[in-house]
Amino acid sequence: MIRPPQFWENPLPFYWRPWAWVSMIYGWVIQHRLKNIVPTKVPVPVICVGNLTLGGTGKTPVSLFLATYFLKKGKKVGFLTRGYKGKSRGPLRVNTHHTAKEVGDEPLLLARVAPTWVARDRVLGAREMVRKGIDIIIMDDGHQNPFLYKDVSLVVVDGVQGFGNKEVFPLGPLREPLHFGLSRAEGVVIVRSPSHALKKDLVAYEGIVTEANIIIKKDSLPFRKVMAFCGIGNPDKFFTSLEEAGIEIVERKSFPDHYRYRGSDLKSLKKMALSHHVDLVTTEKDWVRLSKQDQKDILPVPLTLKWKEWAKMEKLITQKIPK
Hints:
Elements: H1 20-36, E1 46-50, H2 59-72, E2 77-81, E3 92-93, H3 100-103, H4 105-110, E4 116-118, H5 122-131, E5 136-140, E6 152-158, H6 178-183, E7 187-191, H7 196-201, E8 208-216, E9 225-230, H8 235-244, E10 248-254, H9 263-276, E11 279-283, H10 284-287, E12 299-301, E13 303-307, H11 310-320
Parallel strand pairs: 1-5, 1-6, 2-4, 2-5, 6-7, 7-8, 9-10, 9-11, 11-12
Antiparallel strand pairs: 3-4, 8-13
């Protein structure tokens, strides 16, 4: 995804108002699909980790945390994802020989924690997972997908960016009208401290609201100075996590979300890091997109979540998911 326009973050300029009908039609189509398509229920629980805005909010760290939680409980958990930017339509179980070009970058990262299936048709993917013995499905993204029934729907929102100007695409960052999207979610996970505007937007929301921060896994980076780069939806999250861990970023570079790095990009980045006499680091999601050769001299930074009120979310999940 390219960088969002500046006006998505602020009240819509008057000269864009004549185009409001485009957003109205887009929002109506989404609502019509979700209201009129009867979702298919599979024999095992489905937890959907989605969002209401375009771009990065922190869905993947939330999905990974939930999978680890259930694995510790002895559950056979698996990820179901569309495989954004990958060629495969699936259903396909992701293996170590797959590349980001084939299945997308997020599935490669998810598959390092739990069995992962790529499927453009989520129902077919879920049925295949059930046949393979998975007893809890974590659907990474898919809040706007009407075809598969979700036992729990979680919406992840960036605490700083919130819902932007609260307009539906293309006049704003929303994938669907705000009130409609929230009405279908049992819980909201706010990643990074929420702004006053976001708190106001959630006043009338009746579900569970919890907060979490993306942090670097303890002792994963022994050095104190780095050059950092990434191509994710919200690069500031990554850079902030490094700085909050006490790591000095001597230089930073950001690229578009899901960016496919060229050899010249990586050569330039490695040369700059060498000139600064520091290590070159990136996100795990960026790192898995690189070839084995390109991964040399680049260190992935393992991230995790630190919850402010995990007990609230755990209670919601345990109420919905049978033991």
